[in-house]
Amino acid sequence: MSIEIKKGLMGVTVDETSISKVMPEINSLTYRGYAAQDLCANCGFEEVAYLILNGNLPNKKQLIAFKKEERADRKLSKSLIKVLKQIPKKAHPMDVARTAVSVMGLEDKETFDNSPKANMRKTMRIFAKTPVALAAFYRLRKGKKIIEPKKNLSFAENFFHMCFGKVPNKDIVKAFDVSLILYAEHSFNVSTFTARTITSSLSDIHGAITGAIASLKGPLHGGANEEVMHMMKKIKKPENAEKWINKALDNKDVVMGFGHRVYKSGDSRVPTMREYFGKVAKIKKDKKFEKIYDILEKVMIDRKNIYPNVDYPTGPTYHLMGFDTDFFTPIFVISRITGWAAHIIEQHSTNKLIRPLAAYNGSKYRKVIEISKR
Ligand code: SDX
Q: I need a labelling partner for 45 at 20 to 30 A (CA). Which of 25, 181, 318, 363 fits?
């Protein structure tokens, strides 16, 4: 009897979720029923983080309390700072994020408590501290002093402040905030599924998020935003773009920032992020990357009918904001922690051990021969 294998679990529905859905009737990604682009237009990232974690948009009082808790949880322990100082400067910041969350798990007083309330408190600590740890490493590897978080700054403003020592103008901050909203959650993507799989053995949230970070790092997933930038830097100028992309397609190369397992005619987050990329490019008086962006996109659609995913516009946007390229995927992390945590809490509430089957294609039964006779 032949077994049908769904490689990469393509098209397989493995569980239910109430957190997000790409709704075909409005052609959009929705969080808890709200379209991501409407959230970008009307809310700040903290409001959306609250929505993803709690199921409803906050009222004023709830938002104030949520922000207060996040800001109060930002401070890193002395031992975590010591670990960050010992990490090789050449380490990839995604590995630093993974290590930082792992160290937080060693120190957290509630590591072994998987109750929904304890998980929410731990989520807030991971959510608040991970950007602080990443920004500290951003400075340390440049030989600069760590900048302390500030309680009067929003999540997005504070990240700029801790990396660069200043907060840019409000339009740049808004573009960054929008990118965080768009990156926050995307159902059963590979890193979220990793987190749910780890959770399904009743393991803890720090372990699940550490695993999710490792999964997000790969260039077929979150790591694509960095690869997009490497590609654009290689292309150098718009005049080279058409020749470069045609050659890549002739060679059957994978072009980073394009294609998606779920979206086959365009990622619904891209138009919003493309608009904010344009705004940032205008502020920075840069035309080069937008021109390269448009040429590659046109050829990919014309020749392959393959559309950009969200990592395509975020790459050059973060570059123009001044971030080092290897910090692009860590920025994805600081946002996606909200989605991962919501899924971990959901998995705990309806848990069933995730343990699929495999069709064995190895050797037939063999007798063990003593080593001197092999
Ligand atoms: C994210 O799942 C999520 O929700 C993820 C995410 C999230 O928010 O969590 O949206 C974030 O991970 C976005 C994806 C970032 N990755 C990249 O940009 C890497 C480049 N993209 C691809 O490698 C690819 O499109 C995937 C991995 C994203 C999806 O791959 P699938 O669904 O396994 O499809 P496939 O690789 O089998 O491709 C199908 C066909 C192939 O051609 P044929 O062999 O059928 O002729 O499409 C071609 C592929 O070669 N193709 C591409 C391509 N993407 C697909 N060809 C060139 N360049 C590409 N980018």
A: 25
Cβ within 8 Å of residue 218, ≥6 positions away: 190
The tens digit of pLDDT for each residue in 72-91 reads: 999 999 999 999 999 999 99
Judge whether 260 counts as a catalytic residue.
Answer: yes
- Cβ–ligand 1 contact at 313 (below 6 Å): no
pLDDT band at 1 (very low <50, low <70, confident <90, very high): low
Assigned token pair, 267 = 């990622």
Tell whether the model's pLDDT for residue 27 goes beyond 90.
Answer: no
Ligand 1 pocket, residue 256 CB under 6 Å: yes
Which one is catalytic: 161, 206, 260, 319? 260
Closest by CA to 328, choosing from 316, 345, 337, is 316
Q: Which two tokens stand for residue 56?
A: 């409803």
Give the mean model confidence (pLDDT) for residues 352-361: 96
Q: What is the pTM of this model?
A: 0.97
For the Cβ of 21 lying below 6 angstroms from any atom of ligand 1, the answer is no
| Tens-place pLDDT, residues 310-323 | 999 999 999 999 99
All domains of the chain, ordered by start, with CATH? 18-220+327-349 (1.10.580.10), 224-321 (1.10.230.10)
